[in-house]
Design a protein that fits this description.
single chain, 120 residues, mainly alpha, 74% helix
Length: 120
């Protein structure tokens, strides 16, 4: 990813994710399971973590993985609270928070594994 675009990509993604999380979504494709929503959460937060991690690496932050994980998990919790407080059609769901956090953990684990492979 181009270094000069890293921050802009994170900001655009966060904006789109925020809007999608706070509006009434209809017509979301079904994946054929009873927990489609959790799969979408996992994927969205996995990708968000990768983007934030990339930005942290571009800026040469120490502990990019920890910073990325904390930022994205806190963001996810804030979004869930906002769904409960400012919308009448969305609610706080602790399982969404868990799905978000699982996406973050898998993303960080994948990035760490990828880095270890590069070092060898």
């Amino acid at each position: 990813m181009l270094k000069k675009w890293a921050l802009l990509i994170v900001v655009i993604y966060a904006t789109v994710l925020t809007i999608a999380s706070l509006i009434h979504l209809g017509g979301v494709p079904s994946l054929g399971s009873s927990f489609d929503d959790k799969i979408y959460h996992f994927i969205a937060y996995f990708l968000f973590t990768v983007l934030v991690y990339n930005y942290c690496k571009v800026r040469q932050f120490k502990n990019a993985n920890v910073i990325s994980a904390v930022v994205v998990i806190v963001y996810g919790i804030i979004i869930e609270v906002l769904q409960q407080t400012i919308t009448s059609y969305r609610t706080l769901d602790i399982y969404d928070v868990f799905a978000n956090a699982l996406g973050v953990v898998v993303a960080i684990s994948t990035l760490k594994f990828r880095t270890k492979l590069k070092l060898k």
